[in-house]
Write a structure and sequence with these properties.
The structure is a single chain. By secondary structure, this protein is α/β, with parallel strands linked by helices. The protein has one domain: Rossmann fold. The protein contains 9 helices and 8 strands. It has an 8-stranded mixed sheet, with helices on both faces. Strand 3 and strand 4 form a beta hairpin. The model has no long low-confidence stretch (mean pLDDT 92). The structure holds adenosine-5'-triphosphate (ATP) and magnesium ion.
Length: 259
């Protein structure tokens, strides 16, 4: 299963990424989760005690030189287009509850035109993991839609759009849908997060016409408190666990139906 989690800033992408990764792990799958947000915090959300000590892949100069054949930051020169990346998860991932977590780091902006070696290495790694059928992949994307233009994630089984009850995150969801369509990606689902009432659910059902909502996660103090206490958000309530398990079932059914 290959998922990319996206949505407006602060809606709960990282929380949902962590929950999904744990749900896949609980099914006995081999799981890699990649923090693709330049403002990374997936490790923290998963309860890793020292996230600040983990260097993002784009800052691992020796690795970039080893894999790409040129020093990071070089432009215009020739570097490998198909570096061997299969060993990177085992060498560099942080193991959290059996989930291998990688931090991609701040991939410089520049749309599809940025072909520096560090960006290319991250792209090659994601592309490799997207076709590696032994590994489930969860990509915690940065807020907004710009990353979609790079197209690396075109082949995900599902783009998971997190929305909260409110117009702004819904507007972002539709921008995500349009951008995804531009790169030929129409497999998208949405998860409502921070739900406080039936009114919130009704609002999202009405506002999200055209994007399938597959689950609603309640607003839970426990999640906020976990963040403050630096504990794993995966210790959410049974209701949240059950909803996420159901979402995973839906995603798997969809994937099985794909030609
Ligand atoms: N269901 C929930 N109940 C309560 N608090 C939540 C819930 N989901 C997320 N939060 C809180 O909302 C904040 C944002 O969550 P999170 O970091 O997962 O969002 P994000 O979309 O990844 O944010 P960013 O765009 O900054 O990466 C965090 O403080 C988190 O603890
Ligand atoms: Mg996040």
């Amino acid at each position: 299963m290959k998922l990319a989690v996206t949505g407006k800033g602060g809606v709960g992408k990282t929380t949902v990424s962590s929950l999904l990764a744990h749900a896949f792990k609980a099914l006995g799958h081999s799981v890699v989760a990649i923090d693709c947000d330049p403002d990374s915090n997936l490790l923290a959300a998963m309860g890793y005690p020292h996230p600040e000590t983990v260097k993002p892949l784009v800052e691992l100069h020796a690795l970039i030189e080893e894999k790409m054949g040129v020093k990071p930051g070089s432009t215009g020169g020739m570097f490998r287009l198909n570096p061997f990346v299969a060993d990177i998860p085992d060498r560099y991932a942080i193991d959290i509850d059996g989930i291998r977590v990688l931090v991609a780091g701040a991939v410089k902006k520049g749309g599809s035109g940025c072909y520096c070696p560090e960006n290319s290495l991250v792209r090659a790694l994601i592309s490799h993991l997207l076709v590696d059928d032994k590994t489930d992949l969860v990509l915690d994307m940065e807020a907004g839609v710009e990353h979609l233009s790079r197209g690396t994630i075109r082949t995900v089984d599902s783009l998971v759009i997190v929305v909260e009850p409110g117009l702004r995150s819904v507007e972002t969801a539709f921008r995500v849908k349009d951008m995804a369509a531009d790169i030929g990606l129409t497999r998208l689902i949405a998860i409502g997060n921070k739900i406080r009432s039936d009114y919130d659910i009704d609002f999202l059902r009405g506002a999200m016409k055209g994007i399938e909502l597959v689950g609603f996660l309640p607003y839970e103090n426990r999640i906020r408190e976990a963040e403050i206490a630096r504990h794993s958000v995966a210790k959410a309530s049974d209701e949240i666990q059950a909803t996420i398990q159901n979402v995973v079932r839906i995603i798997e059914e969809r994937a099985a139906q794909r030609p």
